[in-house]
Design goal:
The protein is mostly helical. The protein has five helices and no strands.
Length: 131
């Protein structure tokens, strides 16, 4: 497990054959434009007044995903087929709100990438120590 962890941590995105930070930056920039259009706000910038509604939106989107993906209802005798296309669309919708929250916290794509990297290292360390 430690070997995989080191490979993941040490893998520079450009060396791994993809450039996630650039894709993330594009997503953040598109969301900045949309939020400027919808709310007239320049981002990233602290907007604590928008955090509660954004968190509520994230929970609502997760609820929609949960409602669509009903295989968690193990008591159900006739499970509903998963509509993967719809689930993918809902997941993209969820990303809009997660990016909004990040931007409202004054963070940009680089900031969240760095926070993710730090937290990912902690998560691996926890697994290495039987957390």
């Amino acid at each position: 497990m430690g070997e995989v962890h080191e490979a993941i941590v040490e893998c520079d995105p450009s060396e791994c054959g993809f450039n996630v930070p650039d894709m993330l930056e594009v997503m953040f920039n598109k969301q900045k434009v949309l939020q400027k259009r919808l709310r007239g706000v320049d981002l990233p910038e602290m907007h604590p007044e928008l955090i509660p509604i954004t968190v509520t939106s994230i929970v609502a989107e997760l609820g929609e995903i949960l409602e669509d993906e009903q295989h968690w209802k193990d008591w159900r005798k006739n499970p509903v087929d998963t509509d993967i296309a719809h689930l993918r669309m809902e997941t993209a919708d969820l990303w809009h709100f997660v990016i909004n929250l990040t931007l409202y916290l004054g963070m940009d794509a680089q900031d969240i990438f760095e926070e993710f990297e730090a937290k990912n290292a902690i998560n691996h360390e926890r697994q290495d120590n039987n957390y």
